[in-house]
Amino acid sequence: MSKRVEISVFSIVTLVVLANIIFKITTGKNIEFFEIMAMSVFSMFLLYALTWGNKEEKNGIFQDEELGKRITVIASKISYTILYFVIMIAVLADKIVNGTSNVFLLAVFVSAMIIFPLVQYLVSKKYK
């Protein structure tokens, strides 16, 4: 499938799902878990299609080339940091709104604090 077709398809599907969510909000209906997940998945595919080149068309940056690997490493570190702060804000907001902390949210927060350094340690052991 060409890059242009991928981008078109994922753009249309993402907009359709978004329109459905907006419609449900305006009509007072509940938004289901599936709709949120579908929006996330199709947005992810759209961003992936926008970011990486197509080997068949020989255009753009390829994920398995040196530049693509460097982009992935930098983006991973930035994404981890942003996600960590989003979870921290969610924990603080939960504490302020409810007066107590959600144990599962705290477990996710603690996991977010530990996962990156743990993975770094395990990867470094591979090279020692």
Plain-language structure description:
- The chain folds into two domains: 1-60; 62-128, no CATH class.
- It has helices at residues 3-27, 33-51, 66-98, 103-127.
- The chain has 128 residues and is mainly alpha-helical.
- It comes from Oceanobacillus oncorhynchi.
- The chain crosses the membrane at residues 7-25, 31-50, 71-91, 103-123.
- This is Group-specific protein.
Quick structural summary:
The chain has helices at residues 3-27, 33-51, 66-98, 103-127.
Keyword list:
2 domains; 128 residues; Group-specific protein; 80% helix; transmembrane helix; transmembrane; membrane
- Our measurement of the CA-to-CA distance between the termini, rounded to an integer number of angstroms, reads 42 Å
What is the residue-averaged pLDDT? 91
Overall radius of gyration: 19 Å
- Uncertain segments of ≥5 residues (pLDDT<50)? none
Count of domain modules: 2
Largest pleated sheet: none
Strand content: under 5%
**How many beta strands in the DSSP annotation?**
0
User: What is the overall number of helices?
Assistant: 4
Shape: flat
Which secondary-structure class do the elements indicate?
A: mainly alpha
Helix content: over 70%
The succession of helices and strands, N to C, reads: HHHH
